[in-house]
Amino acid sequence: MVASDSVGAEGMGRLASIPFFKEPGIELAPFETRCHWRRFDENEVLVDYDDVSTDVYFLAAGEVRILNRSQSGKEVILGEMRAGAFFGELAALDGIGRSANVTALTRGEVCVVPAAVFRQMVFASEPIADRLFRLLTKRVRELNTRLMEHALLDLRHRLYAELLRLSVPRAGAGDERVVTPPPYHHVLAARIGCRREQVTREFTVMASEGLVDRTRGALVIRRPDLLEARVAEALREDG
Asked: Of 9, 131, 216, 225, which is most buried with the most CB atoms under 10 A?
């Protein structure tokens, strides 16, 4: 259920607060009243498979998860997005129905930009167009990387690669990295295309090797260098 919508005067001047529209080189005021701001609840579906809408959603607050579904109905987690990110641009550009599901992980707020408005802004502003091109290129590269991993790596090495991708350097701890909050095993399984029980078994092995450790509020990767080396070696062997 949508918590509330805000349209018109309440949203005036807010487009400039969105990172994607920062210093656009064009006047944003004419576009303000053609967009609207909408709050959403935890677990609310913002976009679903085959939706005919072509709006673009800019996250002002909150976090969402992007899912894709195979022909057999199995869902794969493509990733999460937080405030500052946006989704729905592909449908706005080509007019084809949605290819993914976007569900809220927390409460939050989005700015909903109609496809026609989004296209006008992109075509009118070189800085905005450049940001869009760079973002789309980055996403294609990331998808290509994941496709190669799924095609060439076994479960263990796909898990290594996903943990490295989710992690960030641990402050004051040398080369260690952390995933915060620690990921649920069923979520990792949905990310790499396997069963939860398989992920649990791999974590048991990694813990026995001293590669990972679970602390309060975080999963600590003790030897990211070793995980990286193992992934690289597996890719060379299968390449």
From this structure: 131
CB atoms under 10 Å from CB of 86, counted, come to 19
DSSP 72-86: TS-EEEEEEEETT-E
What angle do the packed helices 196-208 and 155-166 form, to 10 degrees?
80
If we measure between CA atoms, which residue out of 73, 101, 75 comes closest to residue 87? 101
Please check whether residue 93 is in contact with residue 119, taking contact to mean a CB–CB distance below 8 angstroms.
yes
pTM: predicted TM-score of the whole model, two decimal places: 0.80
Specify the CATH number for the domain of residue 107: 2.60.120.10
- In tens, the pLDDT along 76-119 reads 888 899 999 999 999 999 988 888 899 999 999 999 999 999 99
Whether 178 and 220 have beta carbons less than 8 Å apart is answered as yes
Q: How far apart are CA 155 and CA 203, in angstroms?
A: 12
Strand ordering across the sheet containing 101-104: 45-47, 101-104, 63-69, 75-82
Binning pLDDT at 50, 70 and 90, where does residue 6 land?
Answer: very low
Question: What's the CA gap between 35 and 239, in Å, rounded?
Answer: 48
Q: What is the pLDDT of residue 230?
A: 95
Domain co-membership, 117 together with 11: yes
Q: Span 3-32, mean pLDDT?
A: 75
Q: Which residues contact 148 (CB under 8 A, 6 or more apart)?
A: 235
My answer on whether omega of the bond before 24 falls inside 30° of 0, hence cis, is no
pLDDT of residue 71: 67
Same domain for 123 and 40, yes or no, is yes
